[in-house]
């Protein structure tokens, strides 16, 4: 289709919406983004962008900004939480990916994408909520629902009783997120040349931390299994004591990591099944709006970036909108479902209980890593080595 004549309405200025707006505006489309928030300020926390997501940032021309704002992660160190014993080291540097594995402050990533979108000519309308009943503007040819897991567009596209209408359900996991100035820790946390992420696995819980902003901040994500989510909304500011109490059974290192936490938010982790069909009429869904995932592969944002690129390409190449949507979903569905399933498996591996089972699993993982150090990462080549842009970055 001729992108120059196309008017695109994007609902949601998150990672998916802003990346799609940039990609489409760069191809010549007239793009308007409606965002419910009055300002683009993501709640302070980190986000890992793996090589598959980095490939999209590079293809959008954002490699130098990403290199400046992101912290390159050279490895992931997996440890047993209660004892602190090392289990496995995933050497990201040695894997030789075409694009780097980085950690960003979410606000920096969203800010970078917003600047790219407006720089490409997209208009971002803040304080614009598209409700389930609001009319879709008739001055646009296509509407892209990038409005996250609580998508209003999804609700209007798939009314109750139709495939795709499942309500998000609580996954039995609560995540606390906090950022702590690294200077709050008495001993240096990262003294080598390369930064790394640390993952502590314990019964029914795990904790991940990594540095952000040129080692100025430590990002902490701590997850605990729970039967139910009692809070009214999806997220609330919590008392740091509740977080520390939940991880009291972990070793000294985890407790030391949590000691200086002063501000923390708790999030219920929700999901709904990935539907077979992501579009209806001139509307299509991308990112968390259609395929929310547990964050245990750190892929939700990466998949959102991939969606944005593939969508812009299929729209540009297909003869009509309906064909574009079908090609888009055909290219994305199996990959997205595989990533979502892999995150679910990680939940079981990270949280394994009781102790003898956990020790046996960790021993097997450690042995596998010693025999063939790159093998555990190679199992994820299908994920990290995929470049949906075909090497445009
Ligand atoms: C604890 C945790 C850790 C995570 N870590 C990682 C990680 O390391 N790496 C990774 O890739 N992913 C990670 N994720 C997942 C990632 O955050 C999400 O997958 C990603 O933010 C999805 O982007 P999105 O643009 O689809 O949706 P969102 O980020 O939810 O953006 C949706 C936007 O739409 C707006 N909006 C919503 N409704 C409306 C409406 N009706 N009208 C107008 N605007 C609306 C919202 O305000 C928002 O700006 C993590 C998630 C969690 C919970």
Automatic annotation (TrEMBL):
Pfam families named in the record: FAD_binding_3
GO molecular-function terms, A-Z: FAD binding; monooxygenase activity
Cofactor: FAD
Domain FAD-binding residue range list: 6-128, 140-340
Keyword set includes Oxidoreductase: yes
Keyword Flavoprotein: yes
Swiss-Prot/TrEMBL keywords: FAD, Flavoprotein, Monooxygenase, Oxidoreductase
Name this protein carries in UniProt: FAD-binding domain-containing protein
Origin species: Brevirhabdus pacifica
């Amino acid at each position: 289709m001729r992108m120059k004549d196309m008017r695109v309405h994007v609902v949601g200025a998150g990672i998916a919406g802003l990346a799609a707006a940039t990609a489409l505006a760069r191809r010549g489309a007239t793009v308007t983004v409606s965002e419910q928030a009055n300002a683009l300020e993501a709640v302070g926390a980190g986000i890992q962008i793996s090589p598959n997501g980095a490939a999209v940032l590079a293809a959008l021309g954002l490699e130098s900004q990403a290199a400046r704002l992101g912290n390159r992660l050279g490895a992931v160190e997996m440890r047993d939480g209660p004892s602190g014993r090392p289990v496995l080291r995933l050497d990201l540097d040695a894997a030789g990916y075409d694009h780097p594995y980085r950690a960003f402050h979410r606000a920096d990533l969203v800010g970078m994408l917003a600047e790219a979108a407006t720089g490409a000519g997209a208009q971002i309308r803040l304080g614009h909520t598209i409700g389930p009943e609001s009319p879709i503007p008739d001055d646009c040819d296509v509407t892209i629902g990038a409005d996250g897991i609580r998508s209003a567009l999804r609700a209007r596209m798939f009314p109750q009783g139709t495939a795709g209408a499942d309500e998000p359900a609580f996954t039995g996991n609560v995540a606390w997120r906090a950022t702590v100035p690294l200077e709050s820790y008495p001993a240096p946390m990262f003294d080598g040349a390369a930064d790394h992420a640390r993952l502590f696995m314990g019964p029914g819980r795990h904790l991940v931390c990594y540095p952000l902003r040129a080692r100025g901040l430590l990002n902490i994500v701590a997850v605990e299994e729970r039967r139910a989510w009692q809070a009214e909304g999806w997220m609330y500011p919590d008392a740091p004591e509740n977080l520390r109490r939940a991880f009291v059974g972990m070793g000294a290192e985890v407790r030391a990591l949590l000691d200086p936490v002063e501000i923390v938010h708790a999030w219920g982790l929700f999901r709904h099944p990935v539907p077979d069909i992501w579009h209806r009429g001139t509307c299509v869904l991308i990112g968390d709006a259609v395929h929310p995932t547990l964050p245990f592969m750190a892929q939700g944002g990466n998949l959102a970036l991939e969606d944005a690129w593939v969508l812009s390409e299929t729209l540009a190449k297909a003869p009509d909108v309906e064909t574009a949507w079908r090609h888009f979903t055909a290219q994305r569905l199996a990959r997205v479902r595989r990533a979502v399933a892999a995150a679910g498996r990680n939940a079981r591996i990270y949280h394994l209980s009781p102790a003898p089972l956990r020790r046996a699993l960790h021993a097997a993982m450690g042995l596998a890593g010693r025999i063939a150090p790159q093998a555990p990462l190679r199992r994820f080549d299908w994920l990290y080595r995929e470049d949906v842009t075909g090497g445009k970055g």
